[in-house]
Amino acid sequence: MIDFIYPLASVVLDFFCMLFCIRLAASKRGPVWLIPMTLSLTLLLGSAVCLLATASNIAGETLTQVASYMSLFLFVVSVFWLITIIAFAQRTKPNRIIAEDQKALNEANYIKQRTQPKYRIAADRRTTAKAEIARVSSINKAEQSRVRKTDLYKEGPIAMVKLRKASPID
């Protein structure tokens, strides 16, 4: 009865490793888990063969002893394999804090983009805006003399910035 402990335990551990790999293969990082799933299946089949060789008396006394040593070796490998799979799953799992921060930042950027008014420079329709560019030289003369008798900006060409909310299509 004691001969069945290691082969049975290694079969159970390998079965759990296989189920864990199948569960992780259905996640976002699924293709990464195909190789560990294949290795778990290989260990499961090896452990099942050792359990079968231990259970059957047909194999003979020599093969039964070899199977018992092999089952002890497969049990140790199965324990290390389960620890490796758990550690790899924890390492590849995304950090929740970083993911939540990124999600909040994306949401804030989206809200800012949707609520921020969009401005356009509208053409000035006043008659003074169509004045010739030659009048700009009078601005330079007034700045040189530092005396302003009239507001030259009302007489010269003007480009006015007019607030206009853009449509969401823009």
Order of helices and strands: HHHHHH
Largest sheet: none
Estimated structural class:
mainly alpha
Characterize the overall form: rod-shaped
Q: What is the CA-atom radius of gyration, in angstroms?
A: 40 Å
In the predicted model, the low-confidence regions spanning at least 5 consecutive residues are 156-161
Question: What fraction of the residues are assigned to beta strands by DSSP?
Answer: under 5%
Total E-strand runs = 0
What is the CA-CA span between the terminal residues?
78 Å
What is the average of the pLDDT values? 77
Classify the oligomer. single chain
Q: What's the number of helices?
A: 6
Q: What's the helical proportion of residues?
A: 55-70%
Number of discrete domains: 2
